[in-house]
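All the exercises in this workshop are built on plain-text protein records. Instead of coordinates, the fold is spelled out as a row of discrete tokens. Once this layout is familiar, the rest of the handout is easier to follow. The record below serves as our worked example for the rest of this section.
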Amino acid sequence: MQFKPDLSSFGESTVLGGSSQPGDVSAPLPARVNVFDACNVGVVLRAVLFVEAVVGVGAMFGAGVFVDWLLRFSLLTGGVLPATLAWLIAACVLKGRLARLGTTQQWVAGVSLGALAGLYGCGLLVLLNLLDPAPWWASAAAGALLSAVLVAGLVWRAKARTPAATAARLAELQSRIRPHFLFNTLNSAIALVRAEPAKAEAVLEDLSELFRHALADQTESVTLGQEIALAQRYMAIEQIRFGERLQVQWSLDPEADPAKLPPLLLQPLVENAVRHGVEPSAEGAQIKITTERRGGVVVLKVTNSTPAGVGERGHGLALANVRERLALLHDVQAQFKTVFKDGVFQVRLEIPL
């Protein structure tokens, strides 16, 4: 009797982080990023909160009571907030040109923009007759200093998205397709050569395509449609290996295909589903991959049934790595959730379009 758990009702039941299905390490992928990546919602939010925190602390000096502090803070915010947004908009609009500059020139440009933003904020308060006399030099210096801190944060963020060394690149390649998967696939192809040569040829073609993607120089992102096509090739190979034990259901929304993902983000998820759902079970398991566009967000879910008991628990490094890579590309605009419930494990990703 085939094992057919009901995955249709599992849908939206997810919890944040924490839960992990044992899996292999999947090393971070290299990314080509701009230092002045200020178009990101998360960057804008953190920059505004940081500047407002500095203003709030600065307003405490000379404020005897809370009302006095609140008035000072409100006055300063009237100039600082528009200046901060002006700096972020300028950095976003000019990020292509700024990226072509050298490191020192980028720092100079960022600090200069900060000084101009400081003068802009001061000018707004002067026009509203809220400052007399106008502290032009102090405003320019404060803007330059705060922008230097923001540039330092953007530089740190950019470095976090860059491969650290050749060793990281090698570890990445090794983790993308596990050696035992390669050997098992080749063995499957060898077993089919005489009996079913057409199937053996299809297996080798799928394996070739997987390695072509794994060994190619990766860009910062690929489309969800490309990831789905690659995952389908992977599952076709595993279908030859496991036969009826592997039951795969695809529910795909074509409108979700343009969503951006880090390269080879989906394969570790489906590989984990096979490894921890199908391999330990003599009866097999059901795997369901769904994509759906909901307005400006795409929901991707990978669900697999598991044998009785959770089995040997791993470190969850593959899932943690997928979560980190997704956050580096989309920051707070993306969500990564997992849950294990009633013998079913699900990974749920929300990706902006």
